Amino acid sequence: MNKLSTSSKRSMLTRVLTSIVLLAVLIPALVLGDWFFFALSIPLSVLAVREIIKVPGEKRYPWYVQLVVYLFLLFFVYGTFLLNYWGKGNPFDGATGFYLQKLFFPVLFVVLYFLSLSTIAVLSKKVTLPDMSYLFAIGVFLALGIQGMFYVRYFPNSSGLLENTETLVGLNGTYGTYFSTYYQSHQLNQTYASCLLFFFLLLGTWCSDVGAYFVGVLFGRHPMNPRISPHKTWEGFFGGWLFSMLVSLGFAALFEYAFSMPLVPGLIQFSFSPLLERMGIFAGQSWPFLVLLSFLMPVVGNIGGFLFSLVKRHYGIKDFGKIFPGHGGIIDRFDSIFTNCLMFSLVLSALSGGLLF
Predict the structure, then answer these.
(1) In contact, 162 and 175? CB cutoff 8 Å
(2) Mean pLDDT, residues 294-300 taken together
(3) pLDDT tens-place string over residues 235-253
(4) Helix locations, 33-170, DSSP H
(5) Tens-digit pLDDT profile for residues 66-77
(6) Contacts of 165 (CB under 8 A, 6+ apart)
(7) Exposure check for the chain: N or C terminus, fewer CB within 10 A?
(8) Rounded CA gap, 88 and 288, in Å?
(9) Is 51 exposed, middle or buried, given 0-12, 13-18 or 19+ CB atoms closer than 10 A?
(10) d(CA 148, CA 339)
């Protein structure tokens, strides 16, 4: 066992105290959902975009570059709500609160963002091709990750499956409103119960980080990728992986069997699913998707962590920001969350949108 230094003990204490304060703010917003979670995301998104802009240097980019990045990335995050509002009515006015049945990323505006950065790079001596590539690639990935957070939180709040899924597999109205029907039949508040999927993701991701940190500090010997993250070890990774799976699957089992509250009724649960049986998926066995998500969270979360660590190493900085003592900035704390939200969104979209059958 490694011997802890005074600085390591102090760092652990700081990280723990910061996590407690962060959870005290995050948990109520997640449970209440609706406008509470939406409102919390706004400063988080603005600060995250600012961190991306400031990484190469506080004064690296002219004001017009910063304006373009802010406008496009925030539109990518919140544009789906605006476009749904103008095209199909208010997406915040569902019977069960906010809902989001699909990810929507306007390709036209992605192209416009790329062309805007390209034009600036051509006309301005202050913006290089690497600058343009960085702001485009990392910016779009960040925006997708934040929109994925909305999807994971609000998707279980919808009534059921997408309309095209009902047509594709011939589901009747009962299956088309499966989520809301399940919650009503079990006398559960759907707005509150729908937060479980996001808590499952948070637990799986952060327990992987916590387990990897403590196991790595105490027993770490073999670095995973010293070029990018010299302090992460294979011992820490596997310790965090095991801890993450035990906690996340235990959380899902507790709420499903003790309180009749599966993560996503009919799609992500341990018990047999008549919905998946009707859709012709695994003969109604839904537990493989639950185990798969739990298995993938530590892996995908680490990929996200390494990606943003690569950015920090490239620009020679320790953290993206300093808003969270012991953790760094918004991106430092949520990089793995953003990545796992994207992974969850892909799995849920495939299940509910008929892509797996």
Answers:
(1) no
(2) 95
(3) 888 999 999 999 999 999 9
(4) 34-54, 63-88, 107-123, 129-154, 163-169
(5) 999 999 999 998
(6) 171, 279, 352, 353, 354
(7) N
(8) 35
(9) buried
(10) 9
